[in-house]
Each structure stands twice: as C-alpha cells, then as structure tokens.
DNA sequence: CGGTGTGAAGAGCTTCACAGCA
DNA sequence: TGCTGTGAAGCTCTTCACACCG
C-alpha cells in the first residue's frame, strides 16, 4: 500500500477525515491531491515531528517491580528511547542485571547523567524518595521527568514533569461502570414508574459527562 | 479548615475559579454564598460522584513485573479498589503470594470473577495473550478492562477498554524536549542572522502546538 | 475524476461579570 | 460584605463544504 487517503486513515483512527487533513496540514503539505498521502514519506515526516527519529537516552531510578517492568518494556526501544542506566539506592541491587542492564548505585547518578547526556529521567521510587531523586536529576541536568511515584514533584521553571497515576485509569473505568449501573437502575425505575404510577425516577443523578 | 472558597481551590489546582464553580455546579449546589464550600461535605459528594465510595473488586491477570507492581500499588485500596485475585497462566506461579495475595491459575478465571462479582479486569500479560484473556474476562462478565499489554483489544459493544501505553508519556516528554532544543537552536540562528547577514533561519519548523 | 488543503460555520468549553443569597 | 451560581461573551477546536490541483 504505497499511498493512503485521509478518509481511510480517519476511519482506521475513528476520527473525522477533515480533522485529520487539517492536523496534517500543520506539518506541511505532504499529500497529493487526487491520490492521498505517500505512506512512507508521511511516516517519516510524522516520526521526525514527534522526535522518533532521535535517540533519547533515559535513566530509570528505582528498580523495584515497576522499575523492572519499565526496563523490560519493549515499547521504548522502538520509539527512539534507549535505557542508558538503571539506578537504585539499595547497594544490594548494584551490579545485578535487570533486562540485561546492570543496576548502578544512586551515588553514580550525576556521573551517569553527565556521561550519557541524559535529559529525560524516569522516577519509579517509593513516594518518600521521589522529591530528593528529582532534585538530584534536575541538578545534574535532566529537564524532563516522568514520575510514577504517588507524589507531586516540585521543580524549577523549565523542567517538565509528567505524572502517571496507575489508579486514575482504573478510576475512570469505575466511573463509567457506575454510570452503566446507574442507567440500568434508572431505566428500571422509569419502567416501574410507567407500569405503576405517574411518578418518575427521583432525578438525583446530575448531568455530568467526562471523557 | 472547615470551608474553602472556589478561589483558594482554583489557585491550588492552577485553574480559573469560575471554571471550578461551574464544574461543581454540575454536581449540585453544595456551596454557601459568602462562605464557600464545606470541605468534608464537598469531599464526600465528589467521592460519591466519582464512585470512590463504592467497593470495586478487581482482578489482575498476568503477574510479571508489571502485574506485581500493580498488585503492590498502594493507591488502589485508598480509591475503593480491592484486588480480588491475581491470575497467571504459569502453573509455577500458582499459590505463590504476591503482595500478600496468592496467585491463582488461569483455569480459575471464570470462577473467580463469578464468585467475587468482578466487573473490572486488569490485563498485564504479554501482548500475545492479551486478546484471549480479554475474551475470557468478557465472557465471564467483566465489562471494563484496563489494558497494559501493547495490543489493541477488540471487545463487544458495552465493554469499556482503556489502554495504558507506558511509552506514550515518555514520548510526550521527548516531544517537548525536542521543542526546547529546537527553540534554542532557532533563537541562536536568529541571533546569528541578525549579527551576520539578512538571511533568517531556514524556517522549516511548522507551527504545531500540542498539549 | 478523486482527494487534498482550507475558509467559514458550528459546537463545545472557558472566562467574564454580576445578580442574589447567607 | 463575601462568595456562590450562572447567563452571556469569547475563544478554541471540530466539522462542513468546496475550490483547486494532479
């Protein structure tokens, strides 16, 4: 498949084709009228724009279950990320290989970051250690941090932090699950009301509709 | 602090106070004019609306590093989630306790879900196993799935799936990181141009501005 | 003809500004 | 007086619709 139309891509992605074309147009005019987009060229342009064509050395601090899971995660390599080092505060972990990479002690943190030109750090430590680790990362030159610890990190201007809270997604599911149950109950109540009397459902469910 | 104003909450959250009041108003009129919101009552109402006051039994399928990390994750219990069971396909794992819960074999999946009235399942298996596990969960009565496996799951209507891709957040950081670098380079180029000749930067950077 | 690129219309979300109530 | 709740204005993002080009 050498070319693809905005209509096809939009159907595959579940969005409107006009939106897709408009979004692409911000990257430049890479399509051909009457034909569509050259797949290979488009992939390259999007990859370049997203930074996938670069090599991003990353350090992971805190090699517990989560840190190990991240180190083993295959998705990183394919998106331009390279795990430059695994760092843990436990001296017993030092030297132990995880995902084929030997764990290094926290003492080495500054040197590792400097030697590898690391600008992105991942924090997978317990909550108590996160802020301190964060400060050391920033002081050593890291300007983007992905935080898995359940704490809000404070950082100086110019440093980006993204927080991943594994329970938030569950909470969103639970929210919708609750809605499903509520709607059933409401539908049932309406049915009852229709069958029995003129009284409707108690109407206490507010009109909230999040993503 | 028994009450709090929309202004205070907005400042803490980094949003506009009018937006906060409007959002709250969708849940009902829980504030008092001239005073603010009763903290305890507000917390309760928001918790109830979000479903945090309910008990949600959850099963985690696939007890590798990630599954173990999830099982150990403290944030679940405090948000109304209860890990009803850990399930793995490896018979060697069966009976082994993870986070104090004995791992059970996949054979038990249907029974566990039925016995515990589970409606939310977490998939932390390798990509290859995910779709099959998903189908068994759905057949057994699960209607919400949180998918950590790097695969797109297909499910029947009425089943919610949320996919967590651990590398996407990194990619967003890398994107901004690239922008930072690009802006520096551009600023430098502009400085050069100003200093040397009339020729500007090559102007190939398109005007994209994602979240 | 077929499909992109885009001005214009439309929808939804955010902010303003203030009436109204404790 | 002080702060909520909310109509209206403003803004951004999405979709429509079509000129234009290969």
Automatic annotation (TrEMBL), chains A, B:
The CoA-binding domain covers which part of the protein?
51-152
Which compartments does it reside in?
Answer: Cytoplasm
Any one cellular component term from GO for this entry?
cytoplasm
Does the record carry Calcium as a key word? Answer: no
Record Gene3D superfamilies: NAD(P)-binding Rossmann-like Domain, Winged helix-like DNA-binding domain superfamily/Winged helix DNA-binding domain
The subunit structure is: Homodimer.
Under the heading SUPFAM superfamilies, the entry gives:
NAD(P)-binding Rossmann-fold domains, Winged helix' DNA-binding domain
Provenance organism? Streptomyces fructofermentans
Q: Give the region (Disordered) as residue ranges.
A: 183-211
State the function annotated in the UniProt record: Modulates transcription in response to changes in cellular NADH/NAD(+) redox state.
- List the protein's name: Redox-sensing transcriptional repressor Rex
Q: Name one GO molecular function term.
A: DNA binding
Is the keyword Transcription assigned to this protein? yes
Q: Which UniProt keywords are listed? A: Cytoplasm, DNA-binding, NAD, Repressor, Transcription, Transcription regulation
Matching entries from InterPro entries are given as: CoA-bd, NAD(P)-bd_dom_sf, Rex_actinobacterial-type, Rex_DNA-bd_C_dom, Tscrpt_rep_Rex, WH-like_DNA-bd_sf, WH_DNA-bd_sf
Name the family.
Answer: Belongs to the transcriptional regulatory Rex family.
Annotated GO biological process? negative regulation of DNA-templated transcription; response to redox state
Primary subcellular site in the record, as a coarse category: cytoplasm
Compositionally skewed regions (Basic and acidic residues) per UniProt: 193-202
The record's listing under NCBIfam families reads:
PRK05472.2-1 (NF003992), PRK05472.2-2 (NF003993), PRK05472.2-3 (NF003994), PRK05472.2-4 (NF003995), PRK05472.2-5 (NF003996)
Which amino acid positions bind NAD(+), per UniProt? Answer: 62-67
């Amino acid at each position: 498949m050498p070319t693809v139309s905005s209509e096809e891509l939009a159907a595959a992605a579940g969005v409107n084709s006009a939106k897709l074309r408009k979004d692409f147009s911000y990257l430049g005019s890479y399509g051909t009228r009457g034909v569509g987009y050259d797949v290979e060229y488009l992939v390259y342009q999007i990859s370049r724009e997203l930074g996938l064509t670069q090599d991003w050395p990353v350090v992971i601090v805190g090699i517990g279950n989560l840190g190990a899971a991240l180190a083993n995660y295959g998705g990183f390599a394919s998106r331009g990320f390279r795990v430059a080092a695994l760092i843990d505060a436990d001296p017993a972990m030092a030297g132990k290989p995880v995902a084929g990479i030997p764990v290094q002690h926290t003492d080495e943190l500054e040197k590792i970051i400097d030697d590898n030109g690391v600008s992105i750090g991942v924090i997978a430590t317990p909550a108590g250690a996160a802020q301190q680790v964060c400060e050391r990362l920033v002081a050593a030159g890291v300007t983007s941090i992905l935080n898995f610890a359940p704490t809000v990190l404070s950082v100086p201007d110019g440093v980006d932090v993204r927080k991943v809270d594994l329970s938030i997604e569950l909470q969103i599911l639970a929210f919708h699950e609750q809605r499903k149950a509520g709607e059933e109950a409401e539908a049932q109540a309406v049915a009852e009301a229709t069958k029995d009397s003129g009284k409707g459902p108690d109407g206490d469910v507010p009109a909230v509709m999040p993503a």
